[in-house]
Amino acid sequence: MKCTLMNKYTGVLVAEYDSATSVFTKIYEVKDINYAPYILKSLYIEKDINDASFRTNLSEWFKGRGIPSWRDKLDLLLHRLNITAPYELLDKAFGLSLSDQYWLKPEGSNISYDDINFFDNDFDYAEFMEASLSDNSKVITKVSSLKTPNNTTDGMLKKAWIIDNGTRYLLKGGYKNETLQPFNEVLASEICKRLGFDHVEYTIDTYKDMVVSKCPCFVTKNTEFVTCHQVINDMKRHDSIKDYEEYIKKLEDNGIENAREKVENMYILDFLIMNEDRHLNNFGIIRNVNTLEWFDVAPIFDNGQSLNMEYFDDEEVHISGNGRFFYEVKPFDEIIKVVRDLKRIDISKLDGLVEWFDELLHKYQHLTGYSDTRINKLCILLNRQINKLKRLIEE
Ligand SMILES: Nc1ncnc2c1ncn2[C@@H]1O[C@H](COP(=O)(O)OP(=O)(O)OP(=O)(O)O)[C@@H](O)[C@H]1O
Ligand SMILES: [Mg+2]
Questions:
Q1: pLDDT in tens, 94-136
Q2: Which terminus of the chain, N or C, has fewer Cβ atoms within 10 Å?
Q3: Is residue 181 lining ligand 1, measured as CB closer than 6 Å?
Q4: 80 Cα–ligand 2 center, Å
Q5: pTM score, two decimals?
Q6: Arch. (CATH architecture) of 223-394
Q7: In the chain, where the domains are located
């Protein structure tokens, strides 16, 4: 299919896209490389628009917008969607998503972004939600409409975009039989709210007796989410501290205010809930797609992989105690040292948080089946981290 890769209203490049293999086989013309996905712009070689490695990167980027091969219960989802691989979905709805504004405009078509984008235009979600979230393998939901942003969701967890009262929300389940992720998301939101950190607000919802988290879309028609991975892709790799400093500098150089403080806030949250999953696609920046201005640090999101206990009993609890800091896996006690001034945190705002979390976990005990011992251990862990942070602030 000959098509133009569009960024909202702006044509980026004209190319041949092979749906059967999800590969861009030829680039005919580059219209405006500035509007290309951030990661591609630095890889573009003006002298050779058909450079094989650029085309590979273009295909990889496009594939990366789809459902990954490591998605929980992927086999079941593919079966329900009646497809053999997630990439078959990539161009089903022009490749549109709710995290950015890229799409493929078929050659000769006069379709416009305003007619098709999922921010303004409604989509059917009930069948996809069932196909994606339902745990019962006997349930065979056939999905009749693939005009949905659910074709292009990243991440390991089962998830579905839905519309509720006109607002686009992302529902996310737990991982396999673990159901703690949604509660951690809500705990993270509560901490961010109390400490005044920019964040995506997660709430608990239920889908057929299953606990899921629900959060509104943090991207608008005028913005895109650019991951840290994309931002630092053209930088030379040193050690994590230097990479981190370069990342902060790049954000500041591009006019993002309070960039350091906002990124530090994320690591403070990760310390408090022991989030093990702050990989480079779980944070980043928001860019204006009309002006290409770097607008802000993206609000803190995806905090579910936290408070992980490897085992616990009445006497003890065993945890890994390692988080992620750029390319490294490091103890939380080390990562937190990146925060220059912990005294700016008013820790008293977290008074009563443990009791709040205890109550939340008990409220859904009939659905999760958590034992009182497990809830107690989770609260002990949270309390321990709060106290540790308190001591660090007082040092
Ligand atoms: N509220 C949101 N608004 C817009 N885009 C979002 C939102 N939440 C998530 N996304 C996009 O969807 C991707 C997957 O979401 P998320 O990271 O929450 O899922 P996950 O399955 O927990 O991921 P992981 O594989 O990192 O565990 C994100 O990287 C981001 O691009
Ligand atoms: Mg993620």
A1: 999 999 999 999 999 999 999 999 999 999 999 899 999 987 7
A2: C
A3: no
A4: 24
A5: 0.96
A6: Orthogonal Bundle (1.10)
A7: 223-394
